[in-house]
Amino acid sequence: MSENSNMLLGVKDKPPVVNWILLAIQHVCAMFGATILVPIVVNTTVGSDVLSIPVALVTSGIGTLIYIACTRGRSPVYLGSSFAFIAPMVAGYAIAGKASVFTAIVFVGLMYVIISTIIRIVGKKWIDKVLPPVVVGPMIMIIGLSLAPTAIEEIGINAASVPMTNLIIAFVAFLSTAILAVRGKGLLRVIPFLIGIIIGYITAAILGVVDFSGVASAHIIEMPAFYIPFIDYNLNFGAMLTIVPIALVTMVEHVGDHKVLSEIIGRDLLQDPGLDRTLLGDGIATTVAALLGGPANTTYGENTSVVGMTRVASVYVIGLAAIIAIIFAFSGHLTALLTAIPSPVLGGISILLYGFICVNGLKILIHNHVDFTNTKNVVVAATMLVLGLGGATLSITYGDLSLAISGMSLAAIIGIILNLCIPEEKHE
User: Fold this and answer.
1) How would residue 34 be classed by pLDDT, with cut points 50, 70 and 90?
2) Are 55 and 225 in contact (CB under 8 A)?
3) 270-283 burial, b for 16+ CB within 10 Å, e for fewer?
């Protein structure tokens, strides 16, 4: 896989200062909604402040910088709060409290590190055999399509009655982003999502649906509420079996996300810098996040889509976005301003973000000339798509051990097994 010459900026390219800042802010806007949603959902579900939004922002930024260092600046990935751990964190909190949740997440990261070390020892030649295009393509399509309901929910068009203002705001954000991505000139073409969010935000403010009360009451500088072991709590291993096994599931997602980005930039990131280094970065980032009281980290498809649609793969942009996220976490006004972005704005641009991921999966199948007159390929892809998009969940419970595999992870595992076990079709 050769480096994609269609990229405006390659992984090692550094943009001019003004462009650099705007491109980085665009990535912050892309990841912000999902990153803060994890603390909101967990806290709302358990009825207590388990996670902090500013801490989640800090740990996403620090985690991304750790990942960049571990991958030697060769993979433009942004790390944010992982949705896969929401249910396990809620369950872990119910079993043994807040301290047990963060103790377990520390070990989630360490499991990543252990697996990365094993891969470094045994090599990476097995990856292409286990993950051929007929498995990877549907995996990526499932990642994008499984996120689609989130965009629809943010706009509100899944409800019986949809406010007209939601439709107007989402349409304005979507259309302005799409037009700039297709017909924009110069700088405007590489920051369509940022401009789309700004235009959508202004539209929402004009229509009177933006709540600025949080901005007015915020402080200029606010210290995030870090939750540090041996200072704020002692290690508690009560939730280990509930949370740690989920790492096996998120590793599959990790591979899928890197396959998406590999296709976009034209370089196999599982080979260079290597799955061992990407897992190492993700794992150390998650452990550090837990040590500060943040959620587990994961690679963000939203930011991967931004790379693909803007054709800017610069790791310098990703690094600056991480630094800006950290700065925002300490600024009460900036955090409140971003938190006040109405969900229809994010929903409008998310249609493009999530759809782009799905289309990249389709491109992998086309570019690799996957033959769907071959019945085996049809069986593998069809089974993966139905399982991944149909809401299938495989739950394994043994004593205190509870592991649920669903969505892309279940589809990927089944797809790999089918591809390896079903014999090739014979033509008589």
Assistant:
1) confident
2) yes
3) beebbbbbbbbbbb
CA distances from 225 to 57, 93, 104, 287, 322 (A): 12, 18, 19, 17, 19
Question: What are the angstrom distances between the C-alpha of 133 and each of 143, 287, 291?
Answer: 15, 32, 38
**Looking at the predicted structure, is the pLDDT value of residue 189 above 90?**
no
User: What's the pLDDT at 400?
Assistant: 63
Residue 5: its pLDDT value, please?
64
Give whole-number Cα distances, 200 to 24, 157, 193, 399, in Å: 19, 17, 10, 50
Q: What whole-number distance in Å separates Cα of residue 279 and Cα of residue 112?
A: 6
Tell me the pLDDT tens digit for each residue of 62-74.
Answer: 999 999 999 999 9
Measured distance CA(409)–CA(298) in Å, rounded: 14
Mean pLDDT of the chain: 90
389-420 residue pLDDT tens? 998 888 777 766 666 777 878 888 899 999 99
